[in-house]
Prior knowledge:
Number of strands: 13
Distance between the termini: 39 Å
Number of helices: 11
Largest sheet: 5 strands, parallel
Strand content: 15-25%
Strand order of the largest sheet: 5-4-3-6-7
Structural class: alpha/beta
Helix content: 25-40%
Amino acid sequence: MTTSPRPRTLFQKIWDAHVVAAAGADNVVLYIDRHLVNEVTSPQAFESLRLAGRPVRRPGGTIAVADHNVPTEQRDRPIVEEDSRVQVATLERNVAEFGVPYVPLLSRTQGIVHVIGPELGLTLPGLTIVCGDSHTSTHGAFGALAFGIGTSEVEHVLATQTLIQKPAKNMRVRVNGQMPPGATAKDLILAIIGRIGTGGATGHVIEYSGSAIEALDMAGRMTVCNMSIEGGARAGLIAPDAVTFAYLAGRPLVPTGAAFEAAKAAWLRLRSDPAQHSTRPSISTPLTWRLWSRGARPRMR
């Protein structure tokens, strides 16, 4: 007698596709597709590589951009604040030495580290993405498993293109209904956090679904996933759909033509299997929300 495969969530499908090997009883070695590097959390990591005589394992899987210490105007002039100037200069020296792709300060594509990935087409559904910044969960809006890491982990990814990780738990938040006039994606995620609490999703990856989520544009979805960590979550995820594909089409690093059509078909298969959340609540906790008009609070049902 044959049994049908056990249903899996979006998170589990991405996770399973990136496990390299077991690492003890609970942890695994997880392959990382994209590593975003900034000037704040990378200096010690590069210095450790230098002292150990190690190269960056996969320079093409890494991209660096100065973010936190960049002035909002007059970027053609030296950075006035000394600590900021030193951090940016250090990043530029490190990427040159280790052969890591870098987005220069005066480049038209330079920007916030969480934004350049989507804008360039580096952020794609089904990928694992890390960065030394807690709000890396932003990329989950595209159906990518994305989370922030610490400096020691930055070094580990630079050296091996992998991380030692423990699987997260699954939580599903379903938001149905029409957003009230004047309400934004930030109002939506704040309402969710207000209900579950700032630690309500600790140890979980949240998958957001429902008609209100599907109605958001990509900027709104990025806002929701960005703030998942404010509820204690490790990451936030939204399954890729036509809105995702419309945003990605034509981006510099996104496949084109037949390759893009094939990619879309594969990305659609990432969606959580229908029975998963309803039949295995111990793995995936279903929370159903309805947003009511006239500013009423979301209600759980």
